[in-house]
Amino acid sequence: MYHLKTKFIFFSGKGGVGKTSMACATAVYWANQGKKTLIVTTDPAGNLSDVFEQEIRHNITSIGGADNLSAMEIDPDIATREYKERLLAPMRELFDDEILKIAEEQLSGPCTEEMASFDKFVNFMEDGIYDVIIFDTAPTGHTIRLLELPVDWSKHIEDSAKGSGQTCMGPVTLIQENKQKFDDAIAKLRDIDRTEFIFVLQPEQTSLDETVRASQELGKLGIQTSGLIINGLIPASETETSFFKKRYDMQQTYLAKIHQLFNMSIRTVELFDTELKGIDMFRDLAAKLFGEGEVIRE
Ligand SMILES: Nc1ncnc2c1ncn2[C@@H]1O[C@H](COP(=O)(O)OP(=O)(O)O)[C@@H](O)[C@H]1O
Ligand SMILES: [Mg+2]
Fold first, then answer.
1. Domain definitions of the chain by residue range
2. Which helix (H) or strand (E) element contains residue 37?
3. pTM of the model
């Protein structure tokens, strides 16, 4: 059943730069190519429901008006509940109430919440029924943290096994089997044939600085940045007024700087005169991003 080698595409960047829009356009693009595609948001403030104009939430939901496309918004609270229950269920048969209460308390910290979201995310990194899985992520810091976790993981579980046998994720003996799953996820994140990591940025200093920093952080985790999307360029045709001409010139300077700094695929998206939502809009955006009929790396 698990014959497919799923391709993973991550969209990262500062808040508001256009991650969700580019992730949605990419998802619509791949679905249009006949690939079974899932877009997942790991952003606790994820808004796929708004942009696809239908209710999605913490369930894999088919998107109307597009064949082959499904979406899901990871809800951190539900993910935490599911995760705790999965760890506690096998303990219920083995231990008395007192021990269970202690275990429940140990699973109530912020670390468990972090682990739960990560665990959910790692489940999607397993091969399965999708050709392409797109991750619309939370603003950069949160995402880097999410990706650091599996890299910390092996060490943490090894140390805990030697010491108290307790981790913030539960007793070592119960979670040891996850180690393989996590190691597989790390290997896939580092494999440039399986995973693309795309930063979305605006052509301005703060956005550029953050991209340079985040790309270096990723590099430290052994994950390469595969491409950039520079979003929000003012069209050359709109530079008749000095206000927009000035902004246009500034953007072009940053564009040149970005090309100097990054030797990788760089795509650009102009500012639209509307907001970006709905399948038709994302089809439009996909055509602009990828060119009509162009197929990016299979
Ligand atoms: N090229 C663009 N032209 C016009 N509006 C855009 C463009 N890119 C993004 N937007 C709008 O900017 C807002 C933020 O974009 P979004 O994709 O949600 O960013 P992020 O996910 O990074 O926070 C949204 O309202 C979106 O419709
Ligand atoms: Mg977003």
1. 7-75+120-290
2. strand 37-41
3. 0.90
15 lines ligand 1 (CB under 6 A): yes
Six-digit token string for 65: 């008006």
In whole angstroms, what is the distance from residue 20 CA to residue 135 CA?
9
Tokens of 232: 């929000």
Note residues around ion ligand 2 (Cβ under 5 angstroms). Answer: 19-20
Class of domain 7-75+120-290: alpha beta
Q: Using one digit for the tens of pLDDT, what is the confidence trace for 208-261?
A: 999 999 999 999 999 999 999 999 999 999 999 999 999 999 999 999 999 999
Task: Using most ligand atoms within 8 A of CB, pick from 10, 49, 276, 284 the residue to mutate for ligand 1.
Answer: 276
Binding site membership of 12 for ligand 1 (Cβ less than 6 Å)? no
Structure confidence by residue, pLDDT tens digits, 149-205: 766 766 666 676 676 666 666 666 666 667 788 788 889 999 999 999 999 999 999
- Ligand 1 atom closest to residue 273's alpha carbon, by position in its atom list: 4
| Torsion sign (Cα): 34, 19, 72, 125 | positive
Which ligand 1 atom is at minimum distance from the Cα of 22?
17
16 lines ligand 1 (CB under 6 A): yes
d(CA 273, CA 176): 52
